[in-house]
Amino acid sequence: MSIAIALTKGRLEKETIKLLEKSGYGIESVKNKGRQLVFQDSQKDVQYFLVKANDCITYVQHGVADIGVVGKDTLLEGDKDYYEMLDLGIGKCKFIVAGLQGKSPFDKVGHVKIGTKYPNIAKKYFLAKGMDVELIKIDGSVELAPLLGLCDGIVDIMETGTTLKENGLVVFDTVCEISARVIVNKASFKLKRKEISQVLEDLKESLGENDVTTN
Ligand code: PRP
């Protein structure tokens, strides 16, 4: 049976393609893509499509994609109606709390405002800390918000730390570590178990891993 795999475009794209290639998949059409969005594997009965991270979950949950490759950041923030099967160990970064040097939101007395693209993750984090903060949803370039005084701190992704550094921001705490995960549609895992397990095995082999993670 044919398998459809939703790949997250952007940051994760190159590393995911490299990993699939290493695992014996004929993914050169994705590598050499122009504006094309749907691709056929040249060796196996696998179809790929490139989507934004949130859409990757949507396509998997609706069963249009049997498998999805997407960052744990997106999984933590969004719906959870799928199986999370494998940590690919690529696209590694962290969720951090950052702000202006010497102005930690943890030390502020009174009303604290936090800017983030990930309000669910931020809410859970501050609740666990027993802090009642106001969350301000920001869609991109979150680092700008404390610089302009919109908020006292941010919850955001840090990969190299360059964006924070170049904008004079510092890290006050780490929320959690993030990496790319493989998610699977629940019905597909029943109907196409053999094929899906094979993909997972192929990936695991090139990762040199034996364990399947589920959270
Ligand atoms: C992410 C994140 C930071 C940046 C961190 O943004 O929100 O802005 O990457 O990376 P660094 O630590 O390597 O500098 P992204 O580029 O995904 O775009 P966005 O600003 O639209 O969220």
TrEMBL record:
The keyword ATP-binding applies. HAMAP family: HisG_Short. This is ATP phosphoribosyltransferase. Catalyzes the condensation of ATP and 5-phosphoribose 1-diphosphate to form N'-(5'-phosphoribosyl)-ATP (PR-ATP). Has a crucial role in the pathway because the rate of histidine biosynthesis seems to be controlled primarily by regulation of HisG enzymatic activity. It comes from Longicatena caecimuris. The lineage of its organism: Bacteria, Bacillati, Bacillota, Erysipelotrichia, Erysipelotrichales. Pathway: Amino-acid biosynthesis; L-histidine biosynthesis; L-histidine from 5-phospho-alpha-D-ribose 1-diphosphate: step 1/9. It is an enzyme of class 2 (transferase). It catalyses: 1-(5-phospho-beta-D-ribosyl)-ATP + diphosphate = 5-phospho-alpha-D-ribose 1-diphosphate + ATP. GO terms for cellular component: cytoplasm. InterPro entries: ATP_PRibTrfase_cat, ATP_PRibTrfase_HisG, ATP_PRibTrfase_HisG_short. It is found in: Cytoplasm. It comes from the Bacteria. Heteromultimer composed of HisG and HisZ subunits.
